[in-house]
Fold this sequence. Notes:
Number of strands of chain A: 10
Number of helices of chain B: 15
Distance between the termini of chain A: 54 Å
Number of strands of chain B: 16
Bound molecules: thiamine diphosphate, iron/sulfur cluster, magnesium ion
Oligomer: heterodimer
Structural class of chain A: alpha/beta
Largest interface: A-B, 33 and 38 residues
Number of helices of chain A: 11
CATH class of the largest domain in chain B: Alpha Beta
CATH topology of chain A: Rossmann fold
Helix content of chain B: 40-55%
Distance between the termini of chain B: 48 Å
Amino acid sequence: MEVSNIIKAENQVFCKSKLMTDTALSYCPGCGHGTAHNLTMEVIDEMGISEETIGVAPVGCSVLAYDFMNIDMTQAAHGRAPAVATAISRLWPEKYVFTYQGDGDLAAIGTAETIHACNRGENIVIIFVNNGIYGMTGGQMAPTTLEGMKSSTSPYGRDIETMGSPLKITELIANLPGVYYVTRHAVHTHKHARKAKKAIQKAFENTRLKKGISFIEIVSNCNSGWKMTPLESNIWMEENMFPYFPLGDIKVGGILKK
Amino acid sequence: MRSMTELKLMKGNEALAEAAIRAGVDGYFGYPITPQTEIIEYLMTERPEKRTGMVVLQAESEIAAINMVYGAASTGKKAMTSSSSPGISLKLEGISYLAGAELPAVIVNVVRGGPGLGTIQPSQADYFQSVKGGGHGDYKLYVLAPASVQEMSDFVEDAFDIAFKYRAPVLILSDGLIGQMMEKVILKPQKQRMTNEELIEKYGDWAVTGRKGRERNIITSLDLKSEKMEARVHRLMKKYEQMEKEDLRFEKINCDDAEYLIVAYGSSARISQKAVQLGRAKGIKVGLLRPITLFPYPKQALFELADQVKGILSVELNAGQMVEDVRLSVEHKVPVEHFGRTGGIIHTPEEILEALEQKIIKNGSIKHHKSRESSIL
Lengths: 258, 377
Ligand SMILES: Cc1ncc(C[n+]2csc(CCOP(=O)(O)OP(=O)(O)O)c2C)c(N)n1
Ligand code: SF4
Ligand SMILES: [Mg+2]
């Protein structure tokens, strides 16, 4: 069979969202960031809000998110996206405002901005890609790096005696009264991706209804930083990350799940 | 009442805050620190959200506040923050981002003494930080230095005009003296906040507001391609050149027949003006050059005055900072000395006149080119 007979619209099962630009992704092959971007753009496209949405890119591997997402975006200093989004949302209460941040950005340097934007209950969506490492700078220890996990700044494995325990910032956030929706997902299989997409959709619906903070953690891989093949990294993630960062809803409609 | 000009007795900080509401500022984001806390207190008390729809928010830190300004400015709104020295140090990364991303914003520094926690008393020790970069990278701030409560009020609108003309951050460099003192001030009538359409019409459609009816807009300071980054730096340098040509501000007082010159800005300029009067009463022909903008700096005016006067005293509430720019401007034509107090102590007009007599009039011509050290009383 000719390839041209296969590549046809009617045969297409998965495709790039119309809201993703044609710019080649800067991510390593196998990295979850691209899928997380695509799901976010699918939701915004399907909800018909692409002209009403303002995104805030972080510093991290996804710093160039604005090259890939065909919406208005501004790029924040490392960790400060929630503060940037706060002001945008306060001045443009009718718009959809979201941040897209990594674990170093959101849970280390930007901890204060994250907690206080959440505590104020800003009407924004936070998409938090937790890959347990600083991907962009070449694989240093992140606040979410697991115990014993090796990185270039924990070359003998994270020692919790001297380096502290991996930070469950999402659970911390969920306990703040101003926070409406907190959920944890993954995007490495399409089953997981479908669920994550539903959560992202719910988050933007919450913005429409002015419910305040919707916080979506996506536990993801960093095959380059973890020094694994993409497949190995996904298996390692399921076996090691998911037990510590269990997937599922943590807070829905402002009520903590038991 | 607010539809007309109003005469009031106000603190500098309060006059600035009231002017912000009246200028139609869209957002203020701040964090308390002495001696400028009255700004956010005044704004919170005035309920500007009711008066004009202005958003006022107490941030969790100066870092958050400047990044809120960055967010608001990204959407083309008129946004400002204020702080005092230690807080400004924290804001510098954000200020550098504003400059790099070419965003209009106004930052107010009501300076206190440093380094470190220093003192809550007035100082001008943030001159270097304000005009020599401060944050990282090749950028400058347009710096306005108010010398009265009236200027604390007037400079808010002036600062936003410049910020939007150049799409660049502007600094109002005040100090604890100007911020805390009470004076008569004429407040301008209330202006409406500009609508999005008006902002686009006046300043162009560059902001991120949701890409309705146009291609998307992106705000960033990042250029991974060196050629593009260099082009960005060149674009910034062009703005600064244009500022030097079109928006330099300074004031000359008693300079026409002056044989000696004092250079001073802000609170030091006020006190020096009195010193000039005292000197003139004693028969000393002394004049005052007051830079109103610290960048751009009145280099040419100083260069020309150096042909006329025998010596120059730079009077500052610091250990000798602006004096370097005075020396650069006069290119060794005449002796230039520094006089200043630190620690929050404010020099008196008598002290300034004495310093002029000691450092310039008596020793000036003899010590020409030899004495380069600044001295602190
Ligand atoms: C103020 C500041 N400090 C440090 C850096 C360097 N830096 C860039 S990205 C990064 C870590 C990003 O890690 P993460 O947020 O987990 O994102 P990832 O790349 O893993 O997606 C660091 C430390 C910076 N750009 N700015
Ligand atoms: S370094 Fe890691 S997080 Fe960054 S693109 Fe590569 S795999 Fe993804
Ligand atoms: Mg990471």
